[in-house]
Write a structure and sequence with these properties.
The protein is of the alpha/beta class and 301 residues long. Helices cover 35% and strands 18% of the residues. GO terms for molecular function: ADP-heptose-lipopolysaccharide heptosyltransferase activity.
Length: 301
Amino acid sequence: MRILFITATRLGDAVLSTGLLAYLHQRWPDARFTIACGPVAAGLFSAFPGLERTIVMEKRPYDQHWLDLWKACVPLKWDITVDLRGSAVTFLLRSGRRFIMRGGRRAGARITHLGNVLNLSPPPLPTVWVSPADRAKAQQIIPDTSPIIAFGPTANWTGKIWPTERYLPLWQRLYAAYPQIRPAIFYGPGEQEAALARPVLAALPQAIDAGGHFSLTEVAAMLARCRLYIGNDSGLMHLAAAAGTPTLGLFGPSRASEYAPSGKNARWIAAPGPEGEAPIAGLDVADIATAALSLLKETGI
């Protein structure tokens, strides 16, 4: 049995789609999966147990990347095709059953829209798949000696970024309550991400540098070893929640009603003001600290 799963370009959306993928694998454990996604998200699926092939869709002029995908998939007969990008590609393939998510942005939780594709209510929560090597690497970086509080100070646009100078006073409040903890700073590859993380690393010299050059599955395994993740609305926030880490997402002009972190111990806090318009700088250190300490108390440390 072959299943084609077309998912997102952006990491956060791809993470949110993993619950559907896990459901399909549980329903048809012997199926061979081909996963089509953008380059940023491709590493997310490297340890997925049903993976036969990953097709990385590099955006090309005039939507030629869709033609590339069709060419890669048309020689095969598919039992099921799931298209979360709302394209026409699956209609041009030999497929037994097709499940297509309508394209475009709309109100309501993204994870609910994903669940509706397969008529699943409640929608399955996101998950991550990691290898023994990923876990071994994570153990090297995130030790057992202290409870680790993870911070994610980066995002894909500046409007989502909580002021980096506030992480020190936030840390001081958390440390005052739990002096045994140690911080870790998570960020993605590239100079832009490193530049956003650098001030926080400088302000917290005892912090573990957990960013920049790790694979997505290594990052997921590292996050799973942390007691709490606090960070901006980003792919890392969704990855932390999917890894099972207690997660506190920080929202300003992005909409928590659409992209709140999804997980058993996932929470969020939004800046005061109209949703979608509130400046994230309006989020107060004291309010975030209160929410974080409440989540730590609830989940244990």
